[in-house]
Amino acid sequence: MEEQNKDVIGSAMKLMRTLRRKENPAKHESRGAGKLLRILQENNGMSSRELADRMGIRPASLTEMLNRLEADGILTRQPDPADQRRNRIFIQEKGDALLKKMKAVRQMERERINHSLTLEEQEQFVALCEKLTKSLEDFRHQAGEQ
């Protein structure tokens, strides 16, 4: 019975902490900047609200992140010509360079992780992660969460 009661969530969280603790030349990655920059690279000039929606975060949380990234010259906010009350977010050259560096680091991590598992183990791991994700999403949906 003890085998069935392994701490799956604890093991998954330990794996995620280990992945996030990596040495990374891009100090902003842990703050969600990688996702933000990837979205902006594909949709440069999005409004703050559109960006917050795409990232699945509160506008206030996005504002904190934008303030840090703008202070470092990674992006700029400019008034929307059609509606001066809104800002448009633009990735800068420094942001493009940072994103390129983040992608290179992430690719090296993928290769390192993939080499530690056989192809069959990789397939099993992905299938288990997808199964657990679906189970948690179904549970939250049934509980009325979104």
TrEMBL record:
<dbReference type="InterPro" id="IPR036388">
    <property type="entry name" value="WH-like_DNA-bd_sf"/>
</dbReference>
<dbReference type="InterPro" id="IPR036390">
    <property type="entry name" value="WH_DNA-bd_sf"/>
</dbReference>
<dbReference type="InterPro" id="IPR000835">
    <property type="entry name" value="HTH_MarR-typ"/>
</dbReference>
<protein>
    <submittedName>
        <fullName>DNA-binding transcriptional regulator, MarR family</fullName>
    </submittedName>
</protein>
<dbReference type="GO" id="GO:0003677">
    <property type="term" value="F:DNA binding"/>
</dbReference>
<keyword id="KW-0238">DNA-binding</keyword>
<dbReference type="GO" id="GO:0006950">
    <property type="term" value="P:response to stress"/>
</dbReference>
<dbReference type="GO" id="GO:0003700">
    <property type="term" value="F:DNA-binding transcription factor activity"/>
</dbReference>
<feature type="domain" description="HTH marR-type">
    <location>
        <begin position="1"/>
        <end position="134"/>
    </location>
</feature>
<dbReference type="InterPro" id="IPR039422">
    <property type="entry name" value="MarR/SlyA-like"/>
</dbReference>
<dbReference type="Pfam" id="PF01047">
    <property type="entry name" value="MarR"/>
</dbReference>
